[in-house]
Amino acid sequence: MQHSPQQDFQEEVLGKAVDMKHIQRLMRYLRPYTTPVLVTLFLLIALSGLTLLTPKIIAHAIDTIIKTFDATAGHQFTEYRNSLAKQALFILAIFGVRAIVTMLQQVLLEYVGQGIMFDLRRDVFKRLQELPLSYYDRNPAGRLITRATNDINVINEAFSGVLIYVCRDMFIMVGVLVLLFAMNLELTFFMLIPVPLLVVASALFRPISRRCWRAVRTMVAKTNAFMHESFSGVHIVKMFNREKQLGDEFHAINNANYLARLKVLRVDSLFNSMTLILTSIPISLLLWLGGTRVAAMDLSFGEFYLYLTLLRMLFMPITGIAEKYILMQSAMASGERIFQVIDQPDQMPDPVKPVAPQPFKGSVEFRGVTFSYDGKREILKDVSFKVKPGQTLALVGNTGSGKTTTTSLISRFYDVTGGQVQVSGIDVRDFMKSELRAHIGIVMQEVFIFSSTVRDNVRLSSTDISDEDVWSAIKAVGADEFVSQLPNGLDEVLAERGTGLSVGQRQLLAFARALAHDRAIIVLDEATASVDTKSEMLIQKATELLLKNRTSIVVAHRLSTIKNADRILVFKDGRIVEEGNHAELIAKEGAYFKMYNLQFAQQEDD
What we know:
By secondary structure, the protein is α/β, with parallel strands linked by helices. It is about 60% helix and about 10% strand. It has a six-stranded mixed beta sheet with strand order 6-7-8-3-9-10, sandwiched between helices. A four-stranded antiparallel beta sheet has the order 2-1-4-5, covered by helices on one side. The longest helix has about 55 residues, at about 75-130. The radius of gyration is 36 Å and the shape is elongated. It starts with 19 loop residues before the first helix and ends with a helix.
């Protein structure tokens, strides 16, 4: 197994750090939560004010209580202690209020963040459910799951860790600057000299950091993809003794991931060191200039403490700018990818004026149908046939001849490139897709079993199917033998994909599912290709019951199963090369005759 070098993992490439178009769209998801957002902002303003008030009270206590105390002047120590106690209790009360405000703000913030995630996930999932199969052909399931989980989580982190706290930092920084300039204009000017240097350093750091984090995300994607592929194909790996080769490949990818993260660490460490040096300059200037002014009685000890505290509060948000930038950058990229899914146009929309025939006759007709998945290579070429209500049509041919594609067009999983597919005398494009598919039952070769009860796997959430109907369908197809042996019967919870059931048992449940839903048209896509002889015998009996009085299209792998079909179409390279019933095609001694004899000879050899 070789990991493809062509995989570029474009979904991991980061977009702009700030994209107003995406920010505006994300802001729309805030509208239902306007009140809690406004309350959160109010609480942040209050919290910022309380944060600024605390050092000012301490500075006042230093100048008016601690500095003025003089034991030799006959001051009472008890009075001094009581004054300090009042100030300490006042500060303790402020911290208590800050704790309550912080708790309320965090609860509201989490409520809004979870609400936004809920709405985004709902919209993404709804859109993914609406998109045609062609979209899933182009996009792996793992990538789509990432959109609905990881990308939405990143946006929530950006909202709760960047957007709101940037507002808080702005309030605090504005308040700090107002206090500093009000205290001493000249001294504050000198204190802010390093700020332009910090801005320049941040501007130089951003593109470097962006490239480094892009490399990290690309390597994380490659690592995850490689591990997923390795674990999914673990049987093949062990069968062909590929453990060492796979380990060597993983070591190379893992090492690249390790080196990419080391580079990020070096860049971040360099920037943090530069930030630490630049933010230490104002502290040094304050010690020199402020200490001189204290000695000259131009600055009190309390004001000196207040200056020092306010400077630390001013530069603290700036030191976290790198982390916030990376998080915002990731959020913009995640938002772009999420909106790509939500904005994905439906290439198979429902008609503006849908048709619902009454009654539904169940006939199927192809009129000069051509079809291509990619717009380049035609899979079907001028295919025409008609199936009357109640008839059974069998499709045979080599792999890749167009049989399964034909059945997919009947349910309008794809739209024809040319020609027309009619069901019950109406073009399938004139139906609501849900209405059309409500009349068609499909049994595939690969049966999907959900991680739910046997009952739910047959009923598929349909409220019209009773427990009696479920059991009748199971009994009719012969699945009651193994279902009754399950510890909980119909209430037995099956593992995802039917792990623990045999291929035949899964197939029997699929037949029971189709029978219980009682559709007018039945499509069997090589439904007996992978089952054992006993299961095939049960399915043959179930098939007779399932197809009775229904229009049916059967894609056959074993030609012995379609001898009684009303009509057989032989496909080759996307065209119908022969048609007729079994006896007629055998008499022609053409393609069908050769295929039948070849299978018969193989069965004789077996």
